[in-house]
């Protein structure tokens, strides 16, 4: 069953704003509680494959605790995982203000990604099915696999493309090869987009 987006079940920001004026201690407690609930539900939604809903939860949690740099970084990372690049770009502005001496690891790459999307006229809605397909292939066979995102812009003499690398930590070479073969077949219907956005599985050698 599809999880209910948590933003519909938490108190409205207007209520919290009211509490801030009438009872600051209660407002602080309400904010802290709801931010933690949102973060927990974001984890659950991500595990179930609902990346857009998970992003919504973390963005809301980050808005409740705007000076929480680790939470903001986690929100940006999930936006990148979900292909929400323009939203990540907006959040990076806040991140840079909070951490001017230590830029986000994907900050420069993200701008390159958005530039490629504009040059090739591809949209986030076109990229989303590729990301969902990649995650579906992985979770069908290895739902508990540990991984992280590698995002790069690559080019050769004739083309430039976005590399969406799913870096796997706990699989064998043979298992990654099987996933790669299945992913290639699953992405055939999206060939016009995969010319410019290329999901791939890679094994991280510890």
Topology:
Blueprint: H1 13-22, H2 24-47, H3 51-64, H4 69-82, H5 85-98, H6 107-120, H7 124-141, E1 147-155, E2 160-168, H8 173-186, H9 191-194, E3 197-203
Parallel strand pairs: 2-3
Antiparallel strand pairs: 1-2
Helix pairs in contact: 1-2, 2-3, 3-4, 4-5, 5-6, 7-8
Count of the separate structural domains = 2
Strand content: 5-15%
Instruction: Summarize the helix and strand pattern as letters.
Output: HHHHHHHEEHHE
Assign an overall shape.
globular
Q: Describe the biggest sheet?
A: 3 strands, mixed
Query: Briefly, what CATH class of the largest domain?
Result: Mainly Alpha
The total count of strands amounts to 3
Number of helices: 9
Distance between the termini: 37 Å
Strand order of the largest sheet: 1-2-3
How would you describe this protein?
The longest helix is centred in the first third of the chain and has 24 residues, at 24-47. A hairpin with a 4-residue loop joins strand 1 (147-155) and strand 2 (160-168). This protein has helices at residues 13-22, 24-47, 51-64, 69-82, 85-98, 107-120, 124-141, 173-186, 191-194, and strands at residues 147-155, 160-168, 197-203. The radius of gyration is 19 Å and the shape is globular. The chain is an alpha+beta fold. Helix 2 (24-47) packs antiparallel against helix 3, helix 4 (69-82) runs antiparallel to helix 5 (85-98) and helix 5 (85-98) packs antiparallel against helix 6 (107-120). The chain folds into 2 domains: 6-105, Tetratricopeptide repeat domain (Serine Threonine Protein Phosphatase 5, Tetratricopeptide repeat, Alpha Horseshoe), CATH 1.25.40; 119-203, 2-Layer Sandwich (Alpha-Beta Plaits). The protein has 9 helices and 3 strands. Strands 1-2-3 form a 3-stranded mixed beta sheet. 61% of the residues lie in helices and 12% in strands.
């Amino acid at each position: 069953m599809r999880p209910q987006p948590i933003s519909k079940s938490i108190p409205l920001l207007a209520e919290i704003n009211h509490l801030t004026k009438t009872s600051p201690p209660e407002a602080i407690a309400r904010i802290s509680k709801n931010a933690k609930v949102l973060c927990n539900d974001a984890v659950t939604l991500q595990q179930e494959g609902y990346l857009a809903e998970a992003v919504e939860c973390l963005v809301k949690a980050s808005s409740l605790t705007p000076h929480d740099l680790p939470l903001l970084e986690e929100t940006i990372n999930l936006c990148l995982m979900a292909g929400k690049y323009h939203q990540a770009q907006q959040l990076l502005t806040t991140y840079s203000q909070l951490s001017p001496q230590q830029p986000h690891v994907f900050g420069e790459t993200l701008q390159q990604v958005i530039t490629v999307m504009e040059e090739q006229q591809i949209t986030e809605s076109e990229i989303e099915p590729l990301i969902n397909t990649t995650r579906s292939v992985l979770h069908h066979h290895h739902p508990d696999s540990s991984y992280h995102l590698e995002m790069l812009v690559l080019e050769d003499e004739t083309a430039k493309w976005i590399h969406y690398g799913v870096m796997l930590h706990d699989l064998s070479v043979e298992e990654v090869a099987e996933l790669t073969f299945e992913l290639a077949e699953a992405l055939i219907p999206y060939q016009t987009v995969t010319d410019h956005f290329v999901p791939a599985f890679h094994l991280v050698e510890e």
